[in-house]
């Protein structure tokens, strides 16, 4: 069952310093526990949208609320707490390649520690056990001591997800998480995100280029076109033709 919105956008605009419009008057709400997929062609504003949610990008005007609170004025500790609650998964995994899987996963816990302790690698036994449990959740417990760059792309992305779990996030943002993966590993990564969404009620927002994947995993699909929200439907109402429209119209305009 859907609950109160965990994220809301009201009249959100983002104009980059060079004048490029990233987002244009975006309005929508996301209930806690939803699996939302954002589709749209390259340059439509998907990454921009995701990055405004954890303040990696600042908006130009409008209001974004997380858990009912406007986030734009957050500084210092409040911003750190916001970012702790929001995990982020990137297309390129962003692991430290020469470090072990364990160290990479433990680094997801840094926002719970003073910097000097993390620099010295002073993680507690409880956090080491948590790292093992996180790796179990992504079916990689046997890779604890393996170097990150010895894993396949799909395994590296699952390590990145395990690292995110160390934050105990309420929200996971995934920006093209499977763009560089083959179909089999794509399934493993998407299934993992779906399991965490269903079992832990984590709100998941994923940018995808693939329409079939969007249809397979989403509870709801929103479509962006030139920074505008042009489509917003629950999966039960999404048709192939709608999605083709989002892509074809834009391709013709481009
Ligand atoms: N740092 C930046 N400075 C200026 N313009 C930017 C910047 N980042 C993105 N843009 C522009 O903002 C628009 C939206 O880009 P964004 O990366 O959000 O799109 P996207 O839908 O995620 O595309 P892709 O699928 O290629 O990642 C594009 O026109 C892009 O060129």
UniProtKB/TrEMBL annotation:
A Pfam entry, by short name: ABC_tran
Coiled-coil stretches noted in the UniProt entry, renumbered to this chain: none
Stretches assigned to the ABC transporter domain: 7-251
InterPro entries in the cross-refs: AAA+_ATPase, ABC_transporter-like_ATP-bd, ABC_transporter-like_CS, ABC_transpr_PhnC, MetN_ABC_transporter-like, P-loop_NTPase
Molecular function per GO: ATP binding
Keywords: ATP-binding, Cell membrane, Membrane, Nucleotide-binding, Phosphonate transport, Translocase, Transport
Record PROSITE patterns: ABC_TRANSPORTER_1, ABC_TRANSPORTER_2
Keyword field contains Nucleotide-binding: yes
The keyword Transport is annotated on this UniProt entry: yes
Gene3D superfamilies: P-loop containing nucleotide triphosphate hydrolases
Protein name as catalogued: Phosphonate ABC transporter ATP-binding protein
Organism encoding this protein: Levilactobacillus lanxiensis
């Amino acid at each position: 069952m859907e609950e109160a919105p965990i994220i809301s956008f009201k009249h959100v605009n983002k104009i980059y310093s060079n004048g490029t419009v990233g987002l244009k008057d975006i309005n929508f709400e996301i209930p806690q526990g939803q699996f939302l997929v954002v589709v749209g062609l390259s340059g439509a504003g998907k990454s921009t949208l995701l990055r405004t949610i954890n303040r990696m990008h600042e908006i130009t005007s409008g209001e974004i609320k997380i858990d009912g609170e406007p986030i734009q004025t957050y500084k210092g500790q409040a911003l750190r707490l916001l970012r702790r609650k929001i995990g982020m998964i990137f297309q390129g995994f962003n692991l430290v390649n020469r470090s072990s899987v364990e160290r990479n996963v433990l680094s997801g816990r840094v926002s719970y520690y003073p910097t000097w302790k993390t620099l010295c690698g002073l993680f507690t036994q409880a956090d080491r056990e948590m790292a093992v449990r996180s790796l179990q959740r992504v079916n990689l417990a046997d890779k604890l001591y393996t170097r990150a760059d010895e894993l396949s792309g799909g395994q590296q992305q699952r390590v990145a997800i395990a690292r995110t779990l160390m934050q105990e996030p309420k929200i996971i943002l995934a920006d093209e998480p499977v763009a560089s993966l083959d179909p089999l590993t794509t399934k493993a990564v998407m299934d993992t995100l779906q399991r965490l969404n269903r079992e832990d009620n984590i709100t998941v927002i994923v940018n995808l280029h693939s329409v079939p994947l969007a249809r397979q995993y989403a509870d709801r699909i929103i479509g962006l076109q030139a920074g505008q929200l042009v489509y917003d439907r629950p999966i039960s109402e999404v048709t192939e033709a709608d999605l083709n429209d989002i892509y074809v119209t834009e391709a013709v305009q481009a």
